[in-house]
């Protein structure tokens, strides 16, 4: 796997500085570290925006997908794999997350794509989020959250040359 070296990985301060330099309005708030959506749901934040679930998935061909969906949706990985033209998806390991995007578990968000200049990770955003005007994302660290408008997110993704694919992401049907 060709990855960035730790020397070239950007951090929280770098991504916030880039947002400022680009003139993208955002608000950032520090909080206790969170590792998953359950812990995130217990946070009381003053920031406006929808909380999103961010998952790094991979297939057997080592194709990687950052999937952004609603906070409470249980994903149907088989249906998503089919929609992405893959046979089977699994969750990427913590080591893969760090090697590809330079972040630790609990810190994943589209902002981490700043560390993927080679475009190894395909960004997939659930169309269910299409009507949202602002989002809450971790700025590469899980002890802070950023409120970012939809237009700000789009501008950031264009700047880092990482377009989003807006797809219907099916919920798993429990039987």
Automatic annotation (TrEMBL):
GO terms for molecular function: aminoacyl-tRNA deacylase activity. It comes from the Bacteria. InterPro entries: ProX/PRXD1, YbaK/aa-tRNA-synt-asso_dom_sf, YbaK/aa-tRNA-synth-assoc-dom. This is Prolyl-tRNA editing protein ProX. Residues 52-151 form the YbaK/aminoacyl-tRNA synthetase-associated domain. It comes from Caballeronia hypogeia. Belongs to the PRORSD1 family.
């Amino acid at each position: 796997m060709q990855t960035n070296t730790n020397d070239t990985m950007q951090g929280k301060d770098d991504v916030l500085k880039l947002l400022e330099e680009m003139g993208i309005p955002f608000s950032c708030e520090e909080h206790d570290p969170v590792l998953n959506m359950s812990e995130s749901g217990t946070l009381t934040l003053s920031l406006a925006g929808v909380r999103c679930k961010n998952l790094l998935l991979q297939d057997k061909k080592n194709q990687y997908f950052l999937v952004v969906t609603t906070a409470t949706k249980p994903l149907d990985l088989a249906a998503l794999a089919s929609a992405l033209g893959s046979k089977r998806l699994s969750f990427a390991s913590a080591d893969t997350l760090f090697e590809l995007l330079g972040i630790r578990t609990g810190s994943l968000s589209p902002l981490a794509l700043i560390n993927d200049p080679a475009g190894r990770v395909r960004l997939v955003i659930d169309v269910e989020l299409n009507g949202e005007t602002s989002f809450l994302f971790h700025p590469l660290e899980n002890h802070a959250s950023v409120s970012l408008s939809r237009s700000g997110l789009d501008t950031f993704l264009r700047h880092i040359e990482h377009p989003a694919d807006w797809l219907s992401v099916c919920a798993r049907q429990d039987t």
